[in-house]
Amino acid sequence: MAYRATPNVTTGYSPFFLLHGREMTLPSNEELSAKIGSKDQNIKQRMDNLKTSLKQAYKAVNKASRKSRQSNKRYYDRRPKPRSFANGDYVYLHNPARTQGLSRKFHKYWVGPYVVTA
Predict the structure, then answer these.
(1) How many CB atoms lie under 10 A from the CB of residue 45?
(2) Is residue 108 included in any domain, yes or no?
(3) Percent of all residues in the chain with a pLDDT value above 90, rounded to a whole number
(4) Are 13 and 56 within one domain?
(5) Positions of the chain with pLDDT lower than 70, given as ranges
(6) 114 lies in which domain range?
(7) 56-95 CB burial, b ≥16 within 10 A, e <16
C-alpha cells in the first residue's frame, strides 16, 4: 500500500493515481470520523474531471519515460566495447528469428561458427 501511494521519482505520480485517477486516501486519526459526502458535482462533471486529470497524467508519464529511456541509452552507450575482426577469425552470428512452429525455449540465438572472409 505504501508503494502504491508513493509518487514515482521519474513520473511524479503514484501508481494508484495512474490506475484510479485520484490519490489514495490513507487512514489517519482525523479521517476516522464519519464523513458526509458532498453532492455538488454531478456524475458527468466528475467523469470529465477524471478524464482530463488522467490524460494530463498519462502525457506526463509518457514524456518522463521517454526522457528516462534516452538517459538509459546514454548510460549504456558510454563504454562501448570495440570489436574488430580479421580474415580467418571465427565468429558466431546472432539470429533472433525462429522457425514457425518451434518453441522459443529451445531456439539457438547464436549460429555458427563462421569464418570471416572479407
Answers:
(1) 10
(2) yes
(3) 14
(4) yes
(5) 29-41
(6) 84-118
(7) ebeeebeebeeeeeeeeeeeeeeeeeeeeeeeeeeeeeee
